[in-house]
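Worked example 2:
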Amino acid sequence: MGKIIDAMRARFQTRSIPKTAKGQFNALMRKEKGNTARVAERLGVSRRTVQRYVKGERNINKTKPEILDRLQKEAAKDHQPRVTARAQKEAQQRGMTIETRARFGFKSDAGSTDDPRMRRLTEEVPDHLIPEVFEALRAGDEDRLAQLLGQGLAEEYFRTPGTDAEDLDVEFGDIDYIELDYR
């Protein structure tokens, strides 16, 4: 996973997803209550392939890398849904902060106004973005999380209402570290 997803899971979930492909596969099978057809659909393989994994006729650790990536994403989607829902509810009630050291750059109508540079920021995530942030976490979408958190940092730190800066398009990338917490 990416740095943002790892940081959110470290803070808002109580335990990690299984580390091995076998553990992830078993977690997915438990979630789907042993239904090999649904597991096959989620992994993009045939039902017979899933049945071979279950019986031990085929080693899931030696499967194609793209299937292992899908397996990891699918197992992460279902990991601790109640804990994540409770964390989202608490974040919406209390608010959420982000502390990061990352590269920020700007673009405006007149072109580039500043070359990207490393900045250390601690800001609140706007309340209206919190549901979308947790939805992106559930989907395992690192790019969407970076976009949402970059938008939140732009609103809180970079954009000043009533000035030319209120229309800045902020680029958020090259994350050195990131931590998220409740206010």
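Strands lie at 96-108, 111-125, 169-182. The helical segments are 3-12, 21-31, 36-43, 47-55, 65-77, 81-94, 130-139, 142-158.
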